[in-house]
Amino acid sequence: MKEKKRKKSVILALIPVVFLIGALFLTIVVFKQEDPHIPLILATAVAACVAVYLRFPWSDIQEGMVQGINLAMGAILILMVVGTMIGTWVLGGVVPSMIYYGLKILSPGIFLAATMIICSVVSLGTGSSWSTAGTVGVALIGIGKGLGIPVNMVAGAIISGAYFGDKMSPLSDTTNLAPAVAGTDIFSHIRHMVYTVTPGYVIALILYVIIGARFSGGNLDSGSIQLMLTTLKSNFTIHPLLLLPPLLVIVMVIKKIPPLPALLGGTAMGGICALLTQSSSLTDVFIAAQSGFVSKTGVDMVDNLLSQGGLLSMMKTVALIICALSFGGIMEKTGMLETLAKALLKYVRRTGSLIATTIFSCVGMNLIAADQYMAIVVPGRMYRKAFEAKGLHPKNLSRALEDSGTMTSSLIPWNSCGAFMGATLGVSPFAYMPFAFLNLLVPVVSLFYGYTGITIEKLPEEQEEET
Predict the structure, then answer these.
(1) SS3 159
(2) pLDDT tens digits for 32-54?
(3) pLDDT for 2 beyond 80
């Protein structure tokens, strides 16, 4: 006979969360350590102890951890392949060519705004923020460094553009997931999101133009740029045809080839470019894919820029994702997340507070469960009936889920999205967060609409009567 489980209380459910927040604060703020792996492991142990107290058998606890990790297995595989692709693209002259031509075409004054627009177009076409960051994002980081623009600003503009498409493209998995969970169709969902993303996008673009103006004119170090161009030209074969691999990867994803084989194809193309254009050996290609490319030009700024990539460079991030999702998996499996969500609903009285609760729950899920899919699915499942009870169209819920669950996932270092972006762009999410304007603005716009009632659509009367 199974032992009867103890009742889950809000206080018990909060213990692992409070411990995690405290452990992260001590590690990152007090002890000045960048890596949150150990706090996450300790918080997972605390969550397991609470689960044992609630009389969950260890088999259930372990199953929750495994299920949590399984949520991100596709993402982990993509992360590993992106590492190999970056390594072969640098060795094959693909990234050096992208940086070379970018330095010649783009000017500092328009660079941040152009970065956001470029990434927006690519992500809208591919539906993938990860593919966008792993292809054009890597090159734009290098171009920005060459132009003397702080890398955290560049990364912020990349994130803003990349997540515009992740939020708005019908090819995006989250854009399909949110309306499915909320109970509406994808095109109603996308049309409804235009209201929140448009003001956020316009304001973000204006801010990038204003900030970019600081780097125009006399601030440009033409000597450093010329040194970079000369160094790249003397150490790599630079040719417009080497821009084809990223273009082909983007086209493959647009044509609905799954990201994993598309990115793996990109790795192979990088290796072929290295063999045919850079006089590299097959051994060099395998080393670059495995351990990354090590630049030895003798020019520090070029060497620091190009020494990157490789499967092994992503292992620290993979470990971070596994640690975070183990914690989130236990919290989900034992119902502690559901307990916290239900407690929040007790304070909901009006439409504005319901939308605010949804948004903050999604942000909280991104912090606690460390995965944007859980940040969409769990609150969506919890609040669907509450939206129906208030006579609100489900597209209001689906929009709130994306405005917060999708847009804030990349701002949290231990979230699978934040971990990926940090590893791929080489910039901590804490560093680029203040400059990821679109990601910060959209949840605020969504909150404003919730409390003012602007664009909040009710259910048709006949549907309201049925519910």
Answers:
(1) helix
(2) 887 889 999 999 999 999 999 99
(3) no
Q: Which two tokens stand for residue 231?
A: 């160094």
CB 370 within 8 A of CB 414: yes
DSSP state string for 215-280: TSGGG--HHHHHHHHHHHHHHS---GGGGHHHHHHHHHHHTT--HHHHHHHHHHHHHHHHHHHS--
Q: Which amino acid is at 399?
A: R
Percent composition of the chain: helix, strand, coil (DSSP 3-state, to 5)? 80, 0, 20
**Any idea where the domains of the chain sit in the sequence?**
73-314
Q: Using one digit for the tens of pLDDT, what is the confidence trace for 121-140?
A: 999 988 889 989 999 999 99
Q: Please state, in angstroms and rounded to a whole number, the distance separating the CA atoms of residues 359 and 403.
A: 8
Q: Rounded distance, CA 160 to CA 105, Å?
A: 22
- Contact (Cβ atoms closer than 8 angstroms) between residue 156 and residue 435: yes
**Helix/strand/coil for 456:** coil
**HSE value, Cβ hemisphere, 13 Å, CA-based, for 225:** 20
Helix/strand/coil for 458: strand
Q: Are 294 and 278 in contact (CB under 8 A)?
A: no
Q: Is 372 exposed, middle or buried (0-12, 13-18, 19+ CB in 10 A)?
A: buried
Residues 253, 60 contacting (CB under 8 angstroms): no
What digits encode the pLDDT tens for the residues 45-81?
999 999 999 999 999 999 999 998 887 888 788 889 9
**Residue 116: which of 98, 140, 94, 139 has the closest Cα?**
140
As a whole number of angstroms, the distance between CA 139 and CA 70 comes to 31
- pLDDT band (50, 70, 90) for residue 344: confident
Cβ pair 405, 379 in contact under 8 A: yes
Whole-number Å distance between alpha carbons of 362 and 409: 9
Backbone φ, ψ for residue 308 (5° rounding): -160, 175
Sequence-distant (≥ 6) Cβ neighbours of residue 211 within 8 angstroms: 112, 153, 435
Average pLDDT score, the chain: 91
Classified as helix, coil or strand, 318 is: helix
Distance of alpha carbon 334 from alpha carbon 336, whole angstroms: 6
DSSP string, 162-198: HHHHHHH-TT-HHHHHHHHHHTS-HHHHHHHHHHHHH
- Helix, strand or coil, per DSSP, at residue 285: helix
Alpha helices in 278-415 (DSSP H): 282-291, 300-306, 315-333, 336-345, 351-368, 372-389, 394-401
